[in-house]
Records
---
Amino acid sequence: MEANSDLKEQVSKVQSLPIAMNGSAYTINSQKMAENRGGRVEEIGCEDRISALPDDLLVRILLSIPTEEAVSTMILSKRWRFIWTMLPVLTYQERKVSVWLFLNKSMEFHKAPVLQILSIRLGPHCPTDADVGKWVENAVNRGVRELFFTLQWSADPTRLPKSLNTCKTLLHLRLSHKILVDFPTSSCLPSLERLQLYYVVYKDEASLVALLSSCPVLELLYVMRNEDDNVAKFSVKVPSLRVLLYFNAMSPDENDVVDPGRSLVVDTPALKHFYIGDHSGDSWSIKSMPCLQDVFIIGQSFHDMSKLLRSASAVSYLGLHLTDELAVYCSTIEFPQLIQCTIAPCDSNWMDSLILFLGNTPKLKELTVDYSLTYEPPVASASWMLRFPDPECLSSSLEKFELKDYVGRKEEKELVEYILGTSKCLRTVTISLRSNLKDKETIMETLKAIFILRFDVQRVIGDGLLVVRMVENLAVGPNNRH
């Protein structure tokens, strides 16, 4: 306890020191700027206070700057020559000039017994004959806990060393782009909790299965896929998984024939958070997810959508890119526990779809309509307010309404007026304007007028942002519509 107290005190002292000049470890300690009558400085006292600090504190200081700059401190003095070699975190990011030579040498001289984090990002400047695997092996041999490796060179995807397959210390692994995922059935990653696979290529489907099967305590899986990753049946069978983020970038043309053999299989009984974006047309096989709490669905060409939505019927948060097709499913499924919902408009009849959907959310408290998630905002049908009865949640539970990326279209104003005219429990309305709007002031005045006609309000107005807190709701139901 005393050691920790001393360390905190020393860190506090370092933070209060004057700023070093040009990255030097020497700082001005005291400046007796007593000027004589001639205006000359009589005394300036300087001393090196940082170099006298203990090694562990100097290491903490170096952790606050990029790895390349930390390594460059070795030229300051003998005291600083080897401090950087004890850093537990190394980050290399290629910019305009390749860092692979620097990475090679610095990894060779690095002496920290445990490497907590190794982050390497190499782009097209990296030579195609570079032995990138040895850096990973070096980290594995020193008990790396978090490994982030992005490779975007011009060569084919590369295999990582076999030692990675059985790394006992690894807690977090992120592999990106030109990496060939090749894990045998003998793989074992007993400590891995978080796995991110971004646009990698898999040796085959068996390698993917072997990798996931080797992670008995995996809690988070984040997958981003390209079309040519050598996997037709993407199977996620992980009993311990709690968070799954899955995005498939493949988007077939209208004339493309969908491969019936391509599919996503999800068997994750402990899953709580599921975020999926998929325009590929692949079929789905979704097992029961009794623990599911929140779901976000992006895509317009899902198979087995009804089964997914039924699995999500007990969630408290739901995000949807709302299409007419999706609304058909939503209108037949009850969401009795839904508290928060985010809607991104997609099809022309999206407001009809919204009313149908809200009719099955009796406990909804927070509704967000987000146009920023929509590539081309659709135009609602002219009769959308008259076709269906008002959803129960608007009169009994809705407390917060937010509209993002507002531009002042007729349908947007109609939606705001509809929510105001039917909501009896509304407390807060937040409307944010699109950032590049030219006539923000006029649009904002129009919005303010809508509220003044209906509510006694407290308004918080910023640049393109209107937040309205209701003091007394004057709405009495559908008759208040304009």
---
Amino acid sequence: MVNQAPRGEGSWSDSSGASNSGGESSKESSRSSTPVLDADRSDRLRDKMRRRMESADRWFSLEFFPPRTTSGAVNLLSRHVARRITEDRTRVTNPVGADWEEEDGGFNYAIDLVKHIRSEFDDYFDICVAGYPTGHPEAESYEEDLRHLKEKVDAGADFVITQLFFRSDTFLKFLDDCRAIGITCPILPGIFPIQGYQSLRQLVKLSKLEVPEEITNVIEPIKDNDAAIRNYGIHQAVEMCRVLLDSGKVPGLHFYTLNREVATMEVLRQLGLWIEDPRRPLPWAVSAHPKRKVEDVRPIFWASRPKSYIYRTQDWDEFPNGRWGNSSSPAFGELNDYYLFYLKSKSSKDALLHMWGEELMKEESVFEVFTCYITAQPNCSGQKVMCLPWNDEPLAPETNLMKDELEKVNRRGVLTINSQPNINGKPSTDPIVGWGPAGGYVFQKAYLEFFTSSENVTALLKVLKKYEPRVNYHIVNVHGRNLTNALDFQPNAVTWGIFPGREIVQPTVVDPVSFMFWKDEAFALWIEQWAKLYEDESPSRMIIKYIHDNYFLVNLVDNDFPLENCLWQVIEDMFEMLDAPPEPV
């Protein structure tokens, strides 16, 4: 598993194949390309639904409406990532409160759009249409509305999701009536847990539904108690869903969340459908995109920024499976449009200033921010540092295994942004470092990645001589000058697992080529997320810019994973060399 590296100090070289972040980031922008239909449609939504129904597994889907602001979009997506929510379908709805206006040649009815899609794109898209358990409010009759629904299905709709309703028997009657007139496609009940008195009134007004008297009698006396109404709404939704699922006629549930999914999650917990702590199939968050279904290897550098990695590799035709390989030219996407969304923190500017310092006085002020993030202790303003530009979430559980060591080195200017402890054969079910199927064993090499000053790097290079070939290192500055003792283009597996009846899995690597692409992003975050919080030419901004321009990005790998992690001793030796009195001339 250990990649032998050439001995010696190595030599400085200029980077190739990667662009420099270069001070303030590029202000160029590019237009997004015209979407191209993906010819690979091997795992379609309707096929997933069919498999679920054939296996009799109970399942659910969640609906969110598009946020109106960039920060709203970031917050919504970050909640999905934190909870491992993946979306298989998107529903486009008319703006709230807007009236539909007919247009000549336009899609005046849903059936017009269904026919157009099938005419222009054949069966490429999976199409869902709306059903109304009590009939559409503008239909002449319930029976007429059912006929219109059948016309939409006959025109090419794949499945139906209903408008919300308040009684389980309302949906079950609607389902039976649909089957009686020949509608055979899946019909999913649209579930809306009542979450507040005013939101219920508004929704009922828009949907033109009547709230049953038994529900009104309960919520009217508690209409000013949001918590009580929410608890009742959860109870009412759970009871209704149980009847639907126990009927044997309902394959799955569709929830209207109104972008407030907490009540929905509680409903799903009580139904036994929400998995609280799913075992990780791999050490990193797996993408639900069909193109990535065989992907099982990634560079470690994006461990805390998986959305960034997915964005920068979205144009790949194939994804690494089994081994990363000795590729000398991975095609990572450029960063021009990247800043507009994916580099944005989910925290507000004010929150970031409270965490990272409204005014920085010296480099040590930055050291303190990193230290507070590691220790979870309040900063000098009494605020906890919950994120950094390179880590938008609290620390991973395995990081706590090295918490004391990380605190010590960050206080002295070794500003860590990524790390993992060495692991030698822990069970794959271990609650902290485990991943993969049960019955296996997982392994890790110790890894440490950090920014530090040129003075520290000078001492570090001298210290590292005595740790070769055990320790591989890669040191680079913002301009792309790098020093490494790793073999060119040779990836080093730093996480692997052994499982019954399977080949060894190596999901995480340190790849020298990918590191040069990562360094652009890592350095750019100093400017894009931190420096730009402050006014131009302000002392705080100049301190961050100085670090960006003069510090180095370093990664270290201890290849002897069965032994005690030596990387902390490497850093300690560096500090001792710096603290030692100068030798007499």
